[in-house]
Amino acid sequence: MSDSGATITGSRRLGDIAGHLGLRLHGDPAVEIDAVGTLTGAGQRQISFLANPAYRKQLAATRAAAVIVPPEAVGDCPGAALEADEPYAAWARLLEWLHPPRPARPGIDPSAVVDPAARVDDGAEIGPLCHVGPGADVSPGVILGPGSIVGAGAVIGADCRLLGRVFVGDRCRLGRRVIVHPGAVIGADGYGLAMDGGRWRKVAQLGAVRIGDDCEIGANTTIDRGAIDDTVLGVDVRLDNQVQVAHNCEIGDHTAIAGCTGIAGSTRIGRYCMVAGACGIAGHLEICDRAIITGMSAVTNSIHQPGRYGSGIPARPMRAWQRILVRLSQLDRLFGPGAR
Amino acid sequence: MSDSGATITGSRRLGDIAGHLGLRLHGDPAVEIDAVGTLTGAGQRQISFLANPAYRKQLAATRAAAVIVPPEAVGDCPGAALEADEPYAAWARLLEWLHPPRPARPGIDPSAVVDPAARVDDGAEIGPLCHVGPGADVSPGVILGPGSIVGAGAVIGADCRLLGRVFVGDRCRLGRRVIVHPGAVIGADGYGLAMDGGRWRKVAQLGAVRIGDDCEIGANTTIDRGAIDDTVLGVDVRLDNQVQVAHNCEIGDHTAIAGCTGIAGSTRIGRYCMVAGACGIAGHLEICDRAIITGMSAVTNSIHQPGRYGSGIPARPMRAWQRILVRLSQLDRLFGPGAR
Amino acid sequence: MSDSGATITGSRRLGDIAGHLGLRLHGDPAVEIDAVGTLTGAGQRQISFLANPAYRKQLAATRAAAVIVPPEAVGDCPGAALEADEPYAAWARLLEWLHPPRPARPGIDPSAVVDPAARVDDGAEIGPLCHVGPGADVSPGVILGPGSIVGAGAVIGADCRLLGRVFVGDRCRLGRRVIVHPGAVIGADGYGLAMDGGRWRKVAQLGAVRIGDDCEIGANTTIDRGAIDDTVLGVDVRLDNQVQVAHNCEIGDHTAIAGCTGIAGSTRIGRYCMVAGACGIAGHLEICDRAIITGMSAVTNSIHQPGRYGSGIPARPMRAWQRILVRLSQLDRLFGPGAR
Questions:
Q1: C327 and B336 in contact (C-beta within 8 Å)?
Q2: Known active-site residue C26
Q3: Given CB atoms, is B146 within the 8 Å cutoff of chain C?
Q4: What angle do CA C265, C268, C271 make, to 5 degrees?
Q5: Average pLDDT per run of 10 along chain A, which is 340 residues long?
Q6: Interface predicted TM-score (ipTM) of this complex, two decimals
Q7: Could you tell me which residues are beta bridge partners of residue A262?
Q8: Where are the alpha helices (DSSP H) in chain A?
Q9: Which residues of C touch B318 (CB under 8 A)?
């Protein structure tokens, strides 16, 4: 069920690729490369990569003209090898070179609704059916994809790309080169409620959201505005799809959070953390730098030491799992009367 | 707090209903049916069904004029019985007949923005405030509900229904009769990042999403485009709301995935699988045909045998649960020193 | 990384604030207040509050001119104290007074598409790029934020605020003063499928969604329409972001459900329940009034007694957690042969 990779415009000589990436080439520099591909899908005139050792078996069988590989795999390449200490980073740089994101096409689509009191730089692209509110500031190089909404007083930094149907609430601020995928909601009200005489009273959410340079926000991810102060993402924070960041969270530089993870209010996550998918992180916690949370974990206490943490349980056949559940309920009897 | 069911246009004789569905009727074929309803809500001139045995007690008390039931429940119907081996399938066919989805109303709403280089069939309906990008292809019978966005070069197959505010990214392709609910995002970038000198470098996502005929995609569900090759859904794949499908997943024909489940990258799920709600499925796995995953499970290993799998833990009173948590931490002492 | 709070228009004397809130003031009533702030961020002429005892240490160090505190903390305030039995409720009321939500600006934006057969009250505000379908009814005081869609025959009660890019499906009905955050989808089809001869057959979803007065619906939350009868939220129900409510659920008055929780079909949740984040609640259950579900729990059985329930497991260092997982697999051997 696979396609055969992505074709580039024109072609590149392998020697030029090695030179551009600063990699050592084992093979003929004159070979022409037309396209990038996977190890299994690539054919002649295509380049591929090996980063995940799980796919090493595919390397021996590849028909790719060249493969970016770690040093220890150079000898296994049927074709040319580009030796890289960090093959995946080299691959990312190669794609950046061969398939750069398109630049903004400056101008405002006639169907967009830009408030007269908004400031839209002449170098920004405002796509069809976008709305830019009063006092908003859209910087040069920005692309607002179709159906995006930028609230009153919001600031969109230079070269941001909102792919389409993004919502940025009033007064929220994005740094430079922030990428926001469709359906993301930045700056909805935080979930602030006070029980008052038997009914909920809404606590006005007066803060905003501040996002640093080079962040990426996934599709349908939500980041709530702060209650009083702001919700803050540092620089180079990378959120996958359907992540939920509650009010007044702070997420440190270079932290990556995978899909479907939710973070409750006022939790501070350090720098260079990695949170896997579908985790739940309770509110008012401190997570130190370089903490790694494995998938489907419930983080209910602060973390003060770097390292890996988790509480996910691997699924197994239901009969075996149900037996364990029964045993869990009976654990106490093993400990004897009065045991603690 | 219940309504009294859904009224149809005109009425149908019970005999005609039995004939249309190919069911055996126990009762008077001349009875007129005006509406469908639940066992508890239906009254005279209404038809209902029993599929879930949990509701069998309601059958004896129903005031419905007729009920579609499995053979073993025919004797319990106070009114007429329509005997069906598969009562829920019969019910689905009945509703299809009585309440067919409305056909497309061909034409392009004046507020829609259709690129001159898009191809929109004369038999397609483009609703208010939609955007169709250059090179996109919208087939006959398609309904694009209000606010939907179809990217450059995307293909929307015949008779697809995008209910409104759907996003289909560049070059993504939907088969025929695909239903996409509001807020779904098909074709955002996959979550591809390479650490490079202390910062994340984005890995360009060059693939697309391909969806087969007769799939249904729930509200606010996200399906990312592949990194190089495509993310692929087979035919008749049914995703509920808020499902997340990461880049390069492949989901086999007739597989159904319930709400809030997330699937990490490059995992392949077989045909006729059923995944319950709020599961997390790790990346790079193979799940065979007819695997059933129960709710809130974490799937971290490939599955090679059909059957039921799980790791969800039923909630219980907190005092009891906390006692189990304490015992979990103490398990080691039961196994004695040096035990493995 | 903090801002310095939210400034109000003009200023208020502390005595007036105490009077408005009905609180006992310990301090100089003539002090002027310009802004609200956090305990750590507030400075002179600012007011703050203490509700969560976890932040009590911050109280002693605050530079706020005044703090709303519970009676037992009055003596710890460096500045003035406003004594409140329910400090968080008092704070909510203060913000409501100082920062009221803006009223509707009646009128229909020229870019909005309102069907001629819709009824939009003269006192409603229809924002840019909204769509209101035929037969829809939009009441006085309503704000439809940019990009919102109101389906055919839907009813939006007085003073509702749809913040932007909200989807309300055909025939769904919102009570008065309902707040809906961006990306929410109210009234997508329920997930109704019947297996019929080896393929899924869609079960038409004929019900709608009915939402009572004073509810709040979070960003990217989804509430499906009922299969036959309606999905129903009572009054003052508060849903956070990315909550999923399946078809025919009923949620009782004053119940609050935190982010990323999913509720399967036909489950009835009582009044004054509190469900924490990232829970999964199975279908066809009954949850009684005043049940409290802790975070990341899987609720698979009905709950008949008020109180706290849970099954979430706190994350710990992976080595320790993996040891527990091994022990879980070995539990049976502790119970001896033939044990149950």
A1: no
A2: no
A3: yes
A4: 145
A5: 65 96 97 95 94 90 96 95 97 96 97 98 98 98 98 98 98 98 98 97 98 98 98 98 98 98 98 98 98 98 98 98 94 76
A6: 0.96
A7: A244, A280
A8: 14-21, 56-61, 87-98, 318-335
A9: 294, 307-310
